[in-house]
Amino acid sequence: MFPMERINSSHYYTFFQSDKERCFYIDLGQKLVRLSFCQLLALRQKVWSINIEDHFDEDANPHGFEIVSLCNREHLFILNTLEVLDLKELLTGAFFLLDIAAQTPSLTSRA
Amino acid sequence: MKDIARQQMSIKVESMDMLNAQIQMEGRASASYLAMASWCDQRGYNQSAGFMYKQAAEEREHMMKIFKFVNDCGGNAISPAIESTNHDFSSLEEVFETALSQEIDVTKSINRIVAAAKKNSDFGVENFLQWFITEQLEEEKTMRDILDLFEIMGRDGIALKLIDERISVE
């Protein structure tokens, strides 16, 4: 693996960029996941479309878990409420630092 | 550090999100026009039906234009899921009133994206949407002109048939 630069860290996760490989890595604790830019956009879309309010609704999401597949179902993660929120925070910060987000990113904009 | 993300995508992620929402809206508008076309077709308003079929195709074209733009800019265009389209109308006038308010909603949404793009210095998006601003002015005018016919010619019997005959499909 080529050297990577840490872009952003949240409570549980860390986001890296590899200049040499022209890709990104997310350390999700149990696993280090390699993502191309379009895979990163797809992950962002998936995480943003999670309705966190459902986690507090017994009928909508009784167990408070989300199954998130990454990189065209190459990886599968089961995240709890705090981990989903943490991943949202990680990605919001990362996109801001990668200079493709607006000046004032908002965690709640698509939550 | 290399600017890999910026090299891959020319627009801001916020613009991409808003454009994806717009894709959804245009898709919904297309489905809604199709429902209106069906209503008109079933009641013998042939010109109006033709007009609505054309509008449905146009809205889909708009959707595709934005869809392609998002992908061309390196973004992630999302194919829209269309749910619950209204098929119930009480009159031909209500069909066109619904069409006008739908167009106004689209105009407002486009304006919001342009304003946000301006604020975020995302000038490529702002420039791309200029065509849509002009297009929406035309769309609103077309619907208003048709609704004016109801004021002029009335809302009963033969008046509806005469109005229908005046709806241009071209």
TrEMBL record, chain B:
<protein>
    <recommendedName>
        <fullName>Ferritin</fullName>
        <ecNumber>1.16.3.2</ecNumber>
    </recommendedName>
</protein>
<dbReference type="InterPro" id="IPR009040">
    <property type="entry name" value="Ferritin-like_diiron"/>
</dbReference>
<dbReference type="InterPro" id="IPR001519">
    <property type="entry name" value="Ferritin"/>
</dbReference>
<comment type="similarity">
    <text>Belongs to the ferritin family. Prokaryotic subfamily.</text>
</comment>
<dbReference type="InterPro" id="IPR041719">
    <property type="entry name" value="Ferritin_prok"/>
</dbReference>
<keyword id="KW-0963">Cytoplasm</keyword>
<keyword id="KW-0560">Oxidoreductase</keyword>
<keyword id="KW-0479">Metal-binding</keyword>
<comment type="function">
    <text>Iron-storage protein.</text>
</comment>
<dbReference type="InterPro" id="IPR008331">
    <property type="entry name" value="Ferritin_DPS_dom"/>
</dbReference>
<dbReference type="InterPro" id="IPR009078">
    <property type="entry name" value="Ferritin-like_SF"/>
</dbReference>
<keyword id="KW-0409">Iron storage</keyword>
<dbReference type="Pfam" id="PF00210">
    <property type="entry name" value="Ferritin"/>
</dbReference>
<keyword id="KW-0408">Iron</keyword>
<feature type="domain" description="Ferritin-like diiron">
    <location>
        <begin position="9"/>
        <end position="154"/>
    </location>
</feature>
<dbReference type="InterPro" id="IPR012347">
    <property type="entry name" value="Ferritin-like"/>
</dbReference>
